[in-house]
TrEMBL record:
<dbReference type="GO" id="GO:0030672">
    <property type="term" value="C:synaptic vesicle membrane"/>
</dbReference>
<keyword id="KW-0812">Transmembrane</keyword>
<feature type="compositionally biased region" description="Basic and acidic residues">
    <location>
        <begin position="39"/>
        <end position="56"/>
    </location>
</feature>
<protein>
    <recommendedName>
        <fullName>Synaptic vesicle glycoprotein 2A</fullName>
    </recommendedName>
</protein>
<comment type="subunit">
    <text>Interacts with SYT1/synaptotagmin-1 in a calcium-dependent manner. Binds the adapter protein complex AP-2.</text>
</comment>
<dbReference type="GO" id="GO:0022857">
    <property type="term" value="F:transmembrane transporter activity"/>
</dbReference>
<feature type="region of interest" description="Disordered">
    <location>
        <begin position="31"/>
        <end position="96"/>
    </location>
</feature>
<keyword id="KW-0813">Transport</keyword>
<feature type="transmembrane region" description="Helical">
    <location>
        <begin position="686"/>
        <end position="709"/>
    </location>
</feature>
<keyword id="KW-0966">Cell projection</keyword>
<dbReference type="GO" id="GO:0019227">
    <property type="term" value="P:neuronal action potential propagation"/>
</dbReference>
<feature type="compositionally biased region" description="Basic and acidic residues">
    <location>
        <begin position="72"/>
        <end position="81"/>
    </location>
</feature>
<keyword id="KW-0770">Synapse</keyword>
<dbReference type="GO" id="GO:0006836">
    <property type="term" value="P:neurotransmitter transport"/>
</dbReference>
<dbReference type="InterPro" id="IPR005828">
    <property type="entry name" value="MFS_sugar_transport-like"/>
</dbReference>
<feature type="transmembrane region" description="Helical">
    <location>
        <begin position="597"/>
        <end position="620"/>
    </location>
</feature>
<dbReference type="InterPro" id="IPR022308">
    <property type="entry name" value="SV2"/>
</dbReference>
Length: 744
């Protein structure tokens, strides 16, 4: 009586094991067949989702169905349940399909025991193997998805056409690029006035150099916003970065302290640093292949317009008292502050215009947001068709490929904890994603491209920014030399009972004697008194600039309402002399700045000179290719550097500046287009931001090195610039040509 049930149980278990093995074989054959013939996108996504959930199920959880695709390992209790309910599916899979194929030897949970491993150990190894297999398969699927998406996206853009929508976006993003061009010039233009208005000492002046303030801020901003734009969106990041730029630019026009002004300009640079990487990536994702090179080059013109705007505003505002006004007895809002405020307008206008534009549909598709991308592309299509007179044309695309998404590393819910913990987790997760995306630019697939692009960006920036700042400094040096040659020298003069009520300028008085003289209501510009005696003299209503008294003696002298402060008396003695109602603060006198108009004019001409290069590069970019444009322009710029030997006067230096700028701009346009097209959409702004940050670092080095040789020698700047450009043109030819390829 007892043996009969035992035999029945043994038969039942054998039958259950047989059914389970048959099902495992059928499922494995199905998986192998699916890998050979290729499965649809929805089927693969469903399979991956089920496998992912199966890894998180508890062994003793019977509330959720087991995955029906792939093989599943469980304990004996689950196997018994499965066997007890498998009669209806014996010999068939879940889709009622019968498969033929070779058994691949799929290990079951029990096989681990035969090898000396317990059930939990075998299950752990199997789960780990499945996880790595799933990740590898997912990476391959994502790569395949991107290739299919690139081809389909190009076809969709061609159906949408090029028209009103792209031109509207062109002007909106052009304002953002214009703001970047303005930022480069702002601090350099206001530096002479800010030095006087803020009473800056010589050690502090160097820190206000644009190569140490604006470029450093832009370097940080380019890397930061470029990385974030690939994760949270091009439009959103651009809005945030422009807002930061405009806010701190506005604050910098009102602050009175030097350190606060310095901080505001630094943060303003951080904000505008994201403009170039995001703008070019953003615009490229709305352009079809045959339009991309040309229209990205046209977009570069707005950087030139920004420089022209800054130069023109500086010329019209800074040297004129009419723009200044006073707020209270101590606050002076001089014209250079008005100029800083006006230079924030392009950024403000760009923010207002950008709020009317949609996010990049390519970004949506890369992040699995199909419906949002479809709506944007439909908007592009309908806008262009209405403008062309075909409002009846319907957007025919119904389904767009999306890139399969990786599992989120952190799931943040309301029950995670306090709000600050949730934000900390979000920021930590975002940081890891951005950093991982940056490191992916150095993966074996992109390492050579990234290293070559780093070298080209660095050499181009080092030579271009170094020379464009060196040219104006050389012109200033020549002007100072010419001014010094016209200095009048007076020696051992004796002046008694005389009233000076006219301007004294560019004079040196040595060993003079001034007895009972009056200096009333006058200006002193670039005046130096050395080893002179002033006895019973009277100074009233004096405005001075670059005026000093060295080793002089003052006896019974009265100073009333003057700006002759103590630092103007170098090693001088004041005996029985009195200062009454001295002027407060540092007086700002624009009439003493002989170089202001010339410097603004030189910058205006140098920026305007790139217009022909912009036009030529836009018309030829898609005809001769990016590499030929880049290498050819770099070689021509290298040759033009040797003409600097003949720059012996101001006119020659201005002409050489215009020549160099007009030639080199074509290489910059080609480099921008090449950078956009060499990287896939999920790494585009990250790579562009990193390379642009490296560009700003090279600019700082180039400016520092080149300007240190002003007035010393031309040989070093010429050799550095020509050598860097030659190296850049050679390396550029090693890069892959991207003309004619779809956007990755």
């Amino acid at each position: 009586l007892t043996s009969e049930p035992t035999n029945m149980d043994d038969g039942y278990r054998d039958r259950t094991a047989f059914i389970r093995g048959a099902k495992d074989i059928a499922k494995e054959v199905k998986r192998q067949a699916a890998k050979k013939v290729g499965r649809s996108v929805d089927k693969v996504a469903d399979e991956y989702t089920k496998r992912s959930y199966s890894r998180f199920e508890e062994d003793d959880d019977d509330d959720y169905p087991q995955p029906q695709d792939g093989y599943y390992r469980s304990d004996s209790r689950h196997n018994e349940d499965e066997g007890a309910n498998s009669d209806s599916t014996e010999g068939h899979d879940e889709d009622d399909e019968i498969y033929e194929g070779e058994y691949q030897g799929i290990p079951r949970a029990e096989s681990g025991k035969a090898d000396g491993l317990g059930g939990p150990q075998a299950e752990g190894l199997a789960a780990t193997g499945a996880q790595f297999r799933d990740f590898g398969e997912l990476a391959g699927e994502r790569r395949k998805d991107r290739e299919e998406l690139a081809q389909q996206y190009e076809t969709i853009l061609q159906e949408c056409g090029h028209g009103r929508f792209q031109w509207t976006l062109y002007f909106v993003l052009g304002l953002a690029l214009m703001a970047d061009g303005v930022e480069i010039f702002v601090v350099g233009f206001v530096l002479p006035s800010a030095e006087k208005d803020m009473c800056l000492s010589e050690p502090n002046k160097g820190m206000l150099d644009p190569g140490l303030i604006v470029y450093l801020g832009m370097m940080v901003g380019a890397f930061l916003w470029g990385g974030l734009a690939d994760r949270i969106g091009r439009r959103q990041c651009l809005l945030i970065s422009l807002s930061i730029n405009s806010v701190f630019a506005f604050f910098s026009s009102f602050v009175q302290g030097y350190s606060t002004f310095l901080l505001c300009r630094l943060l303003s640079g951080v904000g505008i640093g994201g403009s170039i990487p995001i703008v070019f990536s953003y615009y490229s994702e709305f352009l079809a292949q045959e339009k991309r090179g040309e229209h990205l080059s046209w977009l570069c013109m707005f950087w030139m317009i920004g420089g022209i705007y800054a130069s023109a505003m500086a010329w019209a505002i800074i040297p004129h008292y009419g723009w200044s006004f006073q707020m209270g007895s101590a606050y002076q809002f001089h014209s250079w502050r008005v100029f800083v405020l006006v230079c924030a307008f392009p950024s403000v206008f760009a923010i207002a215009a950008l709020t009317t534009m949609p996010e990049s549909p390519r970004f949506f598709l890369e992040n699995g947001k199909h419906d949002e991308a479809w709506m944007v592309l439909k908007q592009v299509h309908d806008t262009n068709m209405r403008a062309k007179g075909y409002p009846e044309r319907v957007f025919s695309v119904t389904n767009i490929k999306t890139v399969k998404q990786l599992d989120e590393l952190v799931e943040i819910g309301a029950d995670t904890g306090a709000w600050h913990r949730r934000w900390r987790m979000r920021l930590t997760s975002l940081f890891h994603q951005v950093w991982g995306n940056f490191l992916a630019c150095f993966s074996p697939e992109y390492r050579r491209t990234t290293l070559m692009m780093m070298a080209v960006w660095f050499t181009m920036s080092f030579s271009y920014y170094g020379l464009t700042v060196w040219f104006p400094d050389m012109i200033k040096y020549m002007q100072k030399q010419d001014y010094a040659m016209r200095t009048k020298l007076f020696s051992r003069e004796k002046v008694e009972h005389f009233t000076f009520n006219f301007t004294l300028e560019n004079q040196i008085h040595r060993n003079g004697e001034f007895f009972n003289n009056k200096f009333i209501n006058m200006k002193m510009k670039s005046m130096v008194f050395e080893d002179s005696l002033f006895e019973e003299c009277y100074f009233e209503d004096i405005t001075s600039s670059n005026t000093f008294f060295r080793n002089c003696t003052f006896i019974n002298t009265l100073f009333y309402n003057t700006d002759l402060f103590k630092y103007r008396f170098v090693n001088s003695r004041l005996l029985n002399s009195t200062f009454l109602h001295n002027k407060e603060g540092c007086m700002l006198d624009f009439s003493d700045d002989n170089n202001a108009y010339m410097i603004y004019f030189v910058s205006f001409l140098g920026t305007l000179a790139v217009l022909p290069g912009n036009i030529v590069s836009a018309l030829l970019m898609d005809k001769i290719g990016r590499l030929r444009m880049l290498a050819g322009s770099s070689v021509m710029s290298c040759i033009s550097c040797f003409f600097l030997w003949f720059g012996s006067n101001e006119s020659a230096m201005i002409a050489l500046l215009c020549l160099f700028g007009g030639i080199s701009i074509a290489s910059w346009n080609a480099l921008d287009v090449l950078t956009v097209e060499l990287y896939p959409s999920d790494k585009r702004t990250t790579a562009f931001g990193f390379l642009n940050a490296l560009c700003k670092l090279a600019a700082v080095l180039g400016i520092s090195i080149f300007t240190s040789f002003v007035g010393i020698t031309k040989a070093v700047p010429i050799m550095f610039a020509s050598g860097a450009l030659a190296a850049g043109s050679f390396l550029a030819l090693k890069l892959p040509e991207t003309r004619g390829q779809v956007l990755q």
